[in-house]
Amino acid sequence: MWSICKKEFNQFFSSLTGYMAIVLFLLINGLFLFVLQDSSIFEYGYAGMDKFFDLAPWVLMFLIPAITMRTLSDELKSGTLEILITRPLTAGKIIRGKYLAILFILLLVLLPSTIYIYTIHALSATGDIDTGGIMGSYMGLILLGASFSAIGLACSGSTTNAIVAFLLSAFFCLTFYYGFSALSHIAFFKGNADYYIEMLGIDFHYRSISRGVIDTRDLVYFVSIVVILLLFTEMKLTRRK
After folding, report:
1. Taking every pair of C-alpha atoms in the chain, what is the biggest distance, in angstroms?
2. N or C, which end of the chain has less CB nearby within 10 Å?
3. pLDDT of residue 30 exceeding 70
4. Cβ neighbours of residue 136 under 8 Å, at least 6 residues apart?
5. How far is residue 185 from each of residues 51, 60, 199, 237, measured CA to CA in Å?
6. Rounded Cα–Cα distance for residues 164 and 41 (Å)
7. How far is Cα 105 from Cα 147, in angstroms, rounded to an integer?
8. SS (H, E, C) the chain
9. How far apart are CA 43 and CA 35, in angstroms?
10. What value does the CA radius of gyration of the chain take, rounded to a whole number of Å?
């Protein structure tokens, strides 16, 4: 499993792709946070990272599918996956190894963004920022990214076409993140099932953790998504074996 993880991680950073992912994530968020007039904290008048944590899920919604789209689809297309499976590696170990590599890449993408904390702290008139809320939001962002990664891996394992895998991943990430929230606002569900429908979406639990309060229901939700999708992907590979 660790050999698979190391191989995937090194392969991602063996070209400019890995470094571009980090730079693009920082650049897009930095532009919205400090430059663009409608979203800049200078216009917002409050030294906080709320704008970053509002935008980051939408950036990850397309960045993570771009990271995961070739993870299994290229292996399926070239036939190297069959070679891996014939070795003393179970489908579960292959999936977990690749998933861990994606998580390490995700952490490396998020890590440089912590410089925003220092920047906003320096811009604060009183020097005080909501540290608890920021830590909770980062934890929520990691769990959200972990869920998107599991979605991306499942989609990559369902097709031999990397572009199709990207489009499927982006669609399902959008559906899980915002689809249920949008559905709950339909007038037909107002006052009846709207709250329970909204609870099915990632956005609901992400916003809950971002308040700085860790609720076990939110943790169970994210862990359940990851486990179910990894088991689904493992089942797909096992069938090929």
Report:
1. 62
2. C
3. yes
4. 209, 210, 211, 212, 213, 214
5. 23, 24, 12, 38
6. 37
7. 14
8. CHHHHHHHHHHHCCCHHHHHHHHHHHHHHHHHHHHCCCCCHHHHCCCCCHHHHHHHHHHHHHHHHHHHCCCCHHHHHHCHHHHHHHCCCCHHHHHHHHHHHHHHHHHHHHHHHHHHHHHHHHHCCCCCCCHHHHHHHHHHHHHHHHHHHHHHHHHHCCCCCHHHHHHHHHHHHHHHHHHHHHHHCCHHHCCCCHHHHHHCCHHHHHHHHHCCCCCHHHHHHHHHHHHHHHHHHHHHHHHHC
9. 10
10. 19
Residue pair 69/154 in contact (Cβ under 8 Å)? The answer is no
Express as a percent the part of the chain with pLDDT over 70: 84
Express each pLDDT in 52-87 by its tens digit. Answer: 888 889 999 999 998 888 888 877 777 666 666 666
Q: State how far the Cα of 123 lies from the Cα of 150, in Å rounded to an integer.
A: 37
Q: Quick one: which of 20, 28, 58, 21 has its CA closest to 173?
A: 58
